[in-house]
Amino acid sequence: MFGVKVFSDELERVVARYGIEVHKSSELVEVDAAGRGAVVADNANGTKESISYDLMHVVPPQSAPDWIKATPLADSSNPAGYVEIDKNTMRHLRHANVFALGDAGSSPNSKTGAAIRKQAPVVAKNLLALMAGRPVSAKYDGYASCPLTTARNKMLLAEFDYTMEPAPSIPFIDTTRERRDMWYLKRYGLPALYWNLMLRGLA
Q: Which of 66, 109, 128, 164 suits 174 as a labelling partner, its CA being 20 to 30 A distant?
């Protein structure tokens, strides 16, 4: 359900509460819009199953933009075509004067706004160091945060890093469980942080 076990366990409890049918190791391979049917392939067992639906929300496979995939900056071994960077310094592995972050970089972290918030200062420090002839030494630890709404008034704040262990940023609060205060954070706190601080480079 989720790459970090403690959050996966909590989400398993949430889906059990709602009676949600979950298909793991699966992907949508066909849609019959007129008949409101979807074909889901179970990659683990090599089988396919048809499922009826009332409302469908589809997210395509994530990849770098085509204009990046087509350049020498892309990681040729990865069909997603991300810019091939060191996961800690965010510096290109073959072009020393190139850095990438966010949705374009090949760092193996979740592509979230929280991740970019931690990556941007690393890129800025390392770029300044490179231009000044100093060693590139700032490091990104893979921090990402996934706010997962689990109810009309509850949210699970999944924070983790490259170790795939919880990496909480709020002291004294157990964010491994869905909580009402985390819903208020998503509803009011995160938008204020984003618009007033992050976009201005203040957080």
A: 109
